[in-house]
Amino acid sequence: MIVLIIMTTTNDDILSSLEGVGLHENEAQVYLAALELGPSSIWDIAIKSAIKRPTCYVLMNNLMFKGYASSTFDGKRHIYTVSSPKQLLSAFNRRQEKLAKTLNQLEGLASKSSFKPDVRLYEGKAGVVEVYNLTLDLGKEEEILIYGNVAVETSYQEFIADYLKARVKKKIKVRAILPDTLDNRKIVERDDAELRETRFLPIEKFKQKTEVNIFGKSIAYIAHSEKEPFATVIENSTLADEERSRFNLLWEIPEK
After folding, report:
1. Per-residue pLDDT tens for 187-232?
2. 78 in the same domain as 128
3. pLDDT over 70 percentage in the chain
4. Transcription regulator TrmB N-terminal domain location, by residue (predicted)?
């Protein structure tokens, strides 16, 4: 018997990929609708994307501003065409290359206002995953400090294996302070393999609901317990050093 396995890509996957090249969610929906329709009026694109026509006009103008769409006039109405996926990727790569050339100058500008914190909010599981991926930007032999309620093992099972593999490959170490529970004790069994050192505080005294990650110049506060998880990242070297000092004080309290 031959079993045929068909791999399908959902619209959500496609929209997520489009967001990955710099399109906002609604822009991605309009782009996808216009791509499927071919050269079309804004009326047809609005119906296809299920986005109101006035909003669709604004989003299509955004796409044209970014170089991802164009417009012609047929004597009666404007007809819109979006770039092919290959053209979209090429345009995105050119923008990245242009940014890379000015990165040193931008870093210099940022250092002039180093005390002013950069605060970013990441929403949903995808946002939390993005925050974890930020920690992979650390250099070799650098470390991530973690304390609080760690739920990544249970809430992000489809992601955690690849993340751990990438972190270990980059030799990024972790020190973690966790509530003393049976589940958390199981994590310690993999400490050596996962470049981690873990210590515990009594759960009756350590009831923190969020997970805190300190890495480089950043602090990430991750709320796993909410119905819709989210994370707040503060990037500021002074605040990160303060939080790192608090962590080290806690580190000396518990026994491993």
Report:
1. 888 999 999 999 988 888 777 778 999 999 999 999 876 678 889 9
2. no
3. 86
4. 18-85
* Spatial CA neighbour of 176 closest among 242, 67, 251: 251
Torsion angle defined by CA atoms of residues 140, 163, 224 and 214, in that order, rounded to the nearest 10 degrees: 0
Token duo for residue 250: 């806690």
Q: DSSP per residue over 164-195, as a string?
A: HHHHHHTT-EEEEEEE--HHHHHHHTTTTTTT
Contact 117, 235 (CB under 8 A): yes
Q: What are 84's two structure tokens?
A: 């092919």
Cα–Cα distance, 209 to 222 (Å, whole number): 9
pTM of the full predicted structure?
A: 0.56
- Look up the domain containing 72 and give its range: 11-86
Residue 110 lies in a domain: no
How many folded domains does the chain comprise?
Answer: 2
pLDDT tens per residue across span 16-74: 777 766 778 888 888 889 999 999 999 999 999 898 888 888 888 888 887 788 888 88
Q: Which residues are CB-contacts of 77 (< 8 A; sequence separation ≥ 6)? A: 41
C-beta of residue 214 within 8 angstroms of C-beta of residue 144: yes
Q: Are residues 173 and 80 both part of a single domain?
A: no
- 147 lies in the same domain as 201: yes
CATH number of the domain bearing residue 73: 1.10.10.10
- Which pLDDT does position 216 carry in this prediction? 92
Domain membership flag for residue 193: yes
Say which residues have a Cβ less than 8 Å from residue 27's Cβ, sequence separation at least 6.
18, 59, 62, 63
Enumerate residues 6+ apart whose C-beta is below 8 A from 68: 23, 31, 82, 83, 87, 88, 91
